Amino acid sequence: MKYRTLPHGGEKISVIGLGAGSLSGTKEEMVTVLNTAMENGINCPQKGILCCIERQTGA
Question: What predicted TM-score, i.e. pTM, was given to this entire model?
Answer without folding.
Answer: 0.72
